[in-house]
Design a protein that fits this description.
The complex is a heterodimer of chains A (about 190) and B (about 500). By secondary structure, chain A is α+β, with helices and mostly antiparallel strands. Chain A has six helices and seven strands. Chain A has helices at about 50-60, 60-65, 80-90, 140-155, 160-180, 185-190; strands at about 15, 20, 35-40, 45-50, 95-105, 110-120, 125-135. In chain A, helix 3 packs across helix 5 (about 160-180) and helix 4 (about 140-155) crosses helix 5. Helices cover about 85% and strands about 0% of the residues of chain B. By secondary structure, chain B is mainly alpha-helical. Classes of the chains: A alpha+beta (about 190), B mainly alpha (about 500).
């Protein structure tokens, strides 16, 4: 998640860990409805905490995760526009809920409904970010989120330039919300 | 962290007890902070004491705590201290102890994660409520037991609040719709021009609106009723004025005609006066000639008197001469007688002489007779001359009188002439005045026509006004007046009663 601080988002479909490219599979893995995947990052998006559920489902040990960018679990099916929205929101000091498709160390995927909030110090300065991830409603993911993200991704892939790619996806998302006459937050909570 | 440990059961039980106690204490603490009396303060204190006791048991049972265990206990104590201070950022981030020591730390983290999740969710949800956003409910995923009860309670509270707000909105919308419909009805009637319609009762908040609206419509009704009445009155009066103005106009026309005729008569009069003035001037000239003639005649009469005087003198001298002639005749006769006597004595020689003497005596006799006759004529002549002198004197007197009378006539004619001039100028002034009067009359006639036209258009306009006003429905102006004075009385009575 270091890209949230201004660095360009990784665009390659292959994720690397320890110089090994993770090849995405079609296998979906799940965690308990009752469980929370919890992680914390510093201001640069580097993991400072990952709970057991996170380690377990992502297939990494705590030691493997700490200090790594959060994008270590970024799945290539995720549109960049969603992360832009996420980062714009939390950097503005607000919470955000986002459906995210994540990549495990083995290349499998798992859907989460991520709740990302900035953590403040006593002086109300952002000192890091906290994320609780819950099991999303499978129907919502299947019928709404996955097709929407695929569409945004399609828009993004029309452009070669990273900046244009991001702008195209973000515009698509913005226009989609406008056409539904809703806000992003209201849309997420209505699902 | 489900790997089983090789350590003894009591230690695992003690570790579980520590975690459970701390979890219970934190849950109670958070619930207490959020205002949900899940656990009272005594229970929190008890839980913390229990946790401390369990840790003591854990220590005692091992008797000689190894440094790794001590390290873990220290970490747990440190993170618990942070959590107690409300710092939910605290976690045991990096640990690698296997078995129960690892699990204890993982459990502590899990406990903090769930507390943290609850705090973040509850805070976010209630912050949204503060901003009138009600869809931001607590995500129940990961909320167990008391957390779930608290989260559901909060969600229910938010839902109740949302429903209350929605109901209030709905009620307000209904009220607004009712108010709008009532006001719409009022405006609809106003649009149709019905000023007798008044707004029915509106909700209390709109009371002043209703009062003001009804007062405005009442004012409008009264005003239009008065306008209608006045328009009718203006129409009637303008009709009357138009009729009167018509009559005035035609009279003025006649007056103008008469003035024209008067002008013509006066022109003739001016001519006549001018002719009279000219005639008097001519007469004056003639009279001047007559006066000269009269004076001349008086001179002639004087000369006649003088001639008469000279005739009288000549007559007297003729008388004297006649006396001389008569004396001479007498003497001659006497001589002739003497000559006859002498001739008789001289006989025959004297006979011829005697004849001459007789002839002379006859001539003397005839001379004496002629002288007597002339003397008589002279006397008659003298008397006639005296008469003539007297008559001529009377004639002179008559001429004097004539002259004087001519002078008087001359003065009179001069007066006539000057008066004719004065009359002429006066008549000219009159003529000018009549001309001006005629112009004024014509202007009056024109003005009369304009007034008539204005009155007609005033009548038309007031008729239009009446027609326009008739599109509105209102009660009779007098009735309204009575009503308002009646209301004023009612108000006065009510005020008196209130006082």
């Amino acid at each position: 998640m270091r890209h949230g601080i201004g660095a360009p988002l990784p665009t390659s479909a292959g994720k690397r860990f320890m110089n090994e490219v993770i090849k995405p599979t079609d296998k979906e893995v799940f965690f308990d409805d009752d469980d929370l995947i919890v992680s914390k990052t510093d201001l640069k998006g580097r993991l400072t905490y990952a709970n057991q559920v996170f380690c377990h489902i992502a297939g990494y040990s705590q030691a493997e995760l700490l200090g790594q960018p959060h994008s270590i679990i970024r799945h290539p099916d995720m549109p960049r526009a969603v992360f832009k929205l996420l980062w714009d929101t939390v950097l503005a000091g607000r919470e955000i809920f986002a459906y995210v498709k994540n990549l495990t160390k083995a290349g499998d995927y798992y859907w989460v409904l991520a709740h990302v909030t900035p953590s403040f110090d006593a002086g109300h300065s952002i000192i890091g970010f906290h994320s609780n991830r819950r099991v999303p409603a499978p129907a919502t993911v299947k019928n709404t989120i996955a097709p929407l993200y695929a569409q945004i991704l399609l828009e993004e892939k029309k452009h070669k330039n990273g900046k244009d790619e991001l702008a195209a996806g973000f515009d698509f998302l913005t226009n989609f919300l406008k056409s539904k006459n809703t806000t992003y937050d209201a849309l997420i909570f209505s699902l | 962290m489900t790997r089983s440990s090789s350590r003894s059961e009591p230690r695992r039980a003690a570790a579980a007890a520590v975690s459970a106690a701390i979890l219970a204490a934190l849950a109670g603490l958070i619930a207490g902070l959020l205002g949900y009396p899940l656990v009272d303060h005594a229970a929190i204190a008890a839980s913390i004491l229990c946790a401390a006791a369990s840790l003591a048991i854990l220590s005692k049972r091992t008797r000689q705590p190894q440094s790794a265990e001590l390290e873990v206990i220290k970490r747990i104590a440190a993170v618990c201290k942070e959590i107690s201070a409300g710092n939910f950022e605290a976690r045991i981030a990096d640990y690698s102890e296997p078995g129960i020591l690892g699990e204890a730390q993982s459990r502590v983290n899990d406990m903090i994660d769930r507390c943290d999740a609850f705090v973040r969710e509850a805070t976010a949800s209630l912050q949204s409520v503060c901003q009138n956003v009600y869809y931001r409910r607590i995500m129940l995923g990961g909320m167990r037991g008391s957390f779930r009860v608290a989260a559901e309670t909060i969600n229910n509270a938010v839902k109740t609040q949302e429903q209350a707000v929605e109901k209030a909105r709905h009620d307000a919308a209904l009220e607004h719709a009712k108010v709008l419909s009532t006001i719409g009805e009022g405006l609809g009637n106003l649009k149709k021009g019905d000023l007798t319609f008044r707004l029915a009762d509106l909700p209390e908040a709109f009371g002043p609106l209703k009062v003001d609206y009804n007062a405005a419509v009442s004012g409008l009704e009264t005003a239009l009723a008065n306008v209608g009445q006045i328009a009718t009155s203006v129409y009637d009066q303008s009709q009357e004025i138009a009729t009167a103005s018509d009559e005035l106009s035609s009279r003025t026309e006649r007056q103008s005609g008469m003035l024209g005729e008067s002008g013509a008569s006066i022109e003739e009069l001016v001519d006549a006066v001018n002719k009279a003035a000219e005639a008097s001037t001519r007469t004056k000239d003639i009279i001047a000639v007559a006066k000269v003639n009269a004076v001349d005649s008086m001179g002639v009469v004087q000369q006649s008197v003088q001639a008469m005087e000279r005739i009288k003198d000549s007559s007297e001298r003729i008388g004297a001469i006649i006396g001389v002639i008569d004396e001479i005749a007498f003497q001659t006769n006497l001589l002739a007688l003497n000559a006859g006597v002498e001739a008789a004595r001289a006989g025959d020689a004297g006979r011829g002489f005697a004849v001459v003497a007789s002839e002379v005596r006859s001539l003397a006799q005839r001379s004496a007779d002629a002288a007597r006759e002339i003397k008589g004529l002279i006397v008659q002549c003298t008397s006639d001359v005296a008469n003539g002198v007297e008559h001529v004197g009377a004639t002179g007197k008559a001429f004097e009188n004539l002259r004087d009378q001519i002078s008087v006539i001359d003065g009179g004619i001069a007066d006539i002439a000057s008066q004719a001039v004065s009359q002429s100028s006066t008549i000219k002034e009159i003529n000018t005045a009549i001309g001006e009067l005629d112009a004024t009359t014509q202007q009056n006639a024109a003005m009369g026509e304009e007034v008539t036209a204005s009155c007609r258009s005033l009548a038309e306009e007031s008729a239009q006004l009446t027609e326009m006003v008739s599109k509105f429905v209102f009660r009779d102006a007098r009735k309204l007046e009575q009503e308002s004075s009646g209301l004023a009385q009612d108000d006065a009575i009510a005020a008196a009663a209130a006082a």
